[in-house]
Structure formats: C-alpha cells, structure tokens
Amino acid sequence: MSDAAGRLVTLAEEALGARLPVRVRAWDGSEAGPPEAPALVIRSRRALRRLLWKPGELGLARAWVAGDLEVEGDLYQALDLLSGMIWERGEQAPRGTLGKLSAVRSLADPSVRRMARRAIALAGPGLPPAPPAEEAPRRGGARHTLRRDRQAISHHYDVGNDFYERVLGPSMVYSCAYWADPDGTLEDAQRGKLDLICRKLSLTADQRLLDVGCGWGSMVLHAAQEYGVRAVGVTLSTEQAAYARKRVADAGLTDRVEIRVQDYREIDDGPFDAISSIGMAEHVGSAQYKAYAATLYGLLRPGGRLLNHQIARRPLVHEDAYRVDEFIDRYVFPDGELAPIGTTVGLLEDAGFEVRDVEALREHYALTLRAWVANLERHWPEAVRLAGPGRARVWRLYMAASALAFEHNRIGVNQVLAVRTEAGGASGMPGTRTAWLGGGA
C-alpha cells in the first residue's frame, strides 16, 4: 500500500464532512494534511481496525493506549484541534462527530457502504483487536455496591504509589489545587487548597475530623499538624492506606490520625465535628448520592460542617440523555458519574444540610492538570517502568484532555460548604466570608 496517509485523510474528511485539522503520518511513511499542524501518527493498520470495530472515543482510546496511535508535536494543540470531532463546543451533551458516527448501525446508505469498503481495504482483514490490558473489564450487577466500588477504586488507585509520586509530586494530593499565585509551585497550590478547606471547616484543636476518600493522607496530616485535630481518614485503596499510614507514623501522629480501609457506608463511630470529602463524591453515583449525603449528615454533630469538593458537568436539556464517557469509564474511573452543581446542592439540602457557600475552581483544575502532565512527561521513563507504557499513556491522555475540558468550560469543579444546623436553626457561621475564612478572600 502506498500513500496510506493521503487515502486516510480523504476518507476521514469525506466521513466527517470537514477538513481534518491535523497532519497524518501513516505506517508506510506517507504524510498528508496541514504541514504546520501536529501530526497524528498511525503506527499500525491495527489502529484502523480498532476504529472500525468501535467507532468513536473508545476506538481512539484503545489505539492510543496500545501504542498504535501517537501524537507528534503539542499534545494539547492536537487535542484542541480534534475536540470538535470528540466534543462539540457549546453543546450541553458532549458528543462530537466521532460520537455521532459511532451511532451509525445501518449500511443501507450506499455512500456509507462505499466508505466502509474503502476503510476495510485500508485497515486490512482481521477480527477486532483485543482491548489493551489496561482496560477495565465489563462489570455485571448493580452499580455502586460495596464490592463493585472496591473493584473500581482499586483499578484507578492501586497502580503503584511510586507512579503517583512521579505524577503528583511531594504533596501527594490528587485533586484540584488552589492557585493563589498562578506562577507558584504545585506544592504551594496544594498546600493552599488544604489550608483553605481547613479554614472553611473552622478546624480547632482536638476536634474530630473525618476525611472521606483520604487518598494518601495529605488532608488529615495537614489538619493534624496545622490545626491540632484528631482525624480519621478512610479509603478503599489498600495501597493508598499503606502509604498514608507510613506518612502518619513518620510524622509522629499515630496518636492523632487513623487511616482505615473502609467504605463511607460502614463508618459507625460518629459524631464528627467536621467532614471533608475531596474528589471522592464523583465515585458515589447518582443512584447513591442521596444516601451518601444522608450518611455524612448523620455522622456530623449539630453545628458540624461538611466541605464537599467535587467535579461537576454541565446540565442537560434532558437529564436522562446523560452518558458516561467511554474512555473515562473503561480506563480511568470505572463507574464514575458527574452531576451538575445544582443537583449536588439540592441533594445535600434534601439530606438536611444548609448550604452556606459554593466556590467554583474550574480554572484552578486546568492549572493543576497541566502541572501533573508536566510531571509525568518529566519522569516519563520512570513512569513507564513503574506502571507500564499503556497505563502511562492512559494518564497522559486523560489529564491533558481533562485540562482542556476545564479550560473550555465543558466541566467544572466546586467546593460546597454545608452545615448541619443546631436545634432552632443556629449555624454557628460568622456573618461574613472574610470572618470565616480567617482573613481570606
């Protein structure tokens, strides 16, 4: 086969009804497309077979993870140029041209049959390639049972603490940082986020803090060291728990901080004075969210505060049209679900909370993700050695694409401060933001 790139570009533009915004380099060495644009390098005809058998995001993701597809040049620029094929800017439902093509099930249209024959000729014969080993297997049964949630969390977090050290840096915080100085360091921004949460919760010495989804223990350590609290951190990841316990022991805080491998639904030793849930609620699922909110409400003492830090999607005209992103579901967060911020606030209020403050940090997450991608790229050989090339490629694509999603306002992230008011309605909250933030913004 000669000039595979030219044939690919012609076929793609005919199928998409638009010019392909990136250059294509094919397995035979041929190139086609805008010479100044980033190059989509198709290393094997197997990449085309993946797309033929699974058109859309999942086919592209499988080709990327397997190494059949690569980007040469600026990854952010390439993803931005291709974003209209994957996500349609301005649409409430993020379904671009490739997503629509994946819905085609009929070959009744003669033009579709002709394109299919040409695509098969380019791809070569063969059965669908097996998904890369990094793909989560299909799950059966009901979502968000205790067992299935443990499996989902393990898929994402139990990939090696050494790998996460290379990506997250010394802070070991895997959630949106708070960039008081956009030119500051990631470590300063993560410390700023942890301290912001402590101030919003108005933590004081010897209070009991529960951190739901405690990760590698950064929040409970910060709260104990800086505010003198007694903290319990719970996670479903055994690797995270082992790492967090060592950090607690190294800091000499085993008498003040406890790390448990435990589901939030299994906690029975409340009440707590404050609860933080940072980047965990995305795993809860819409069907379980009311129970999640009620559980946290029941674990708080009257007057206690909850800080819920959670990624949000944009609302849809028809909410039942929401679909989970296939790449994220198969490779990153199995069973993860996003909800609009209004839905989250409503469910927290339904549980009995009074919502006192909502702060949007969308741009902060874009900066955080770009910092994580830079860390990963800086430590790329080590990351590949520690987690394998496929896993490293998953995280690079996921974080870079997510940075653009936050920048383009396809998704957001919010801190919701809520209180379980006392009998009679007293909240214990100062009258102004400045007061309860201790002089902050």
UniProtKB/TrEMBL annotation:
GO terms for biological process: lipid biosynthetic process; methylation. InterPro entries: CFA/CMAS (IPR050723), CMAS (IPR003333), MeTfrase_dom (IPR020803), SAM-dependent_MTases_sf (IPR029063). GO terms for molecular function: methyltransferase activity. This is Putative cyclopropane fatty acid synthase. Keywords: Lipid metabolism, Methyltransferase, S-adenosyl-L-methionine, Transferase. Belongs to the CFA/CMAS family. PANTHER family: CYCLOPROPANE-FATTY-ACYL-PHOSPHOLIPID SYNTHASE (PTHR43667:SF1). Residues 123-143 are annotated as: Disordered. Residues 163-418 form the Polyketide synthase-like methyltransferase domain. SMART domains: PKS_MT. The lineage of its organism: Bacteria, Bacillati, Actinomycetota, Actinomycetes, Kitasatosporales. It holds the Pfam family CMAS.
